[in-house]
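Kindly inspect the following:
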Amino acid sequence: MAKVAVVLSGAGYLDGSEIQEAVFSLYFLDLAGAEVQCFAPDKDQMHVVDHLTGEPTGESRNVLHEAARIARGKVAPLSELDMANFDAIFLPGGYGAAKNLSNFAVAGAEAEVEADLVAALKAAYEAQKPIGAVCIAPAVLAAALRSFGGEAKLTIGDD
């Protein structure tokens, strides 16, 4: 049975993981027989967005605690992710990837990625383990790869 680390960035497409992408990814990994463990950074979100209005609320929320909404509480701090224990790593999309896993939302091509995520992606890359990313998450993956000299062919939809 393959073991897959899924890295969440909160809950909600405007400030966390896109819930449909995260849930369907978890669902199809389960259907494929994979054993999944979710991870998320234990830090405050960049900002909290009201998903009805699309406007920032001024509230403060923790990425790990918000990710627990999707993972049904079964989520561990990203700092505990050791790729030696996993066969693959997967990053669902949602703007949280660009805001909470990295600073891509504000820095663009010069983005920096959370150190714990870079370490996990580097370990997966060097061990030639599959790395999956959807929606905006390939941009985070590109920034992480750039930080350690990794190369890959990445696409984002039609771009």
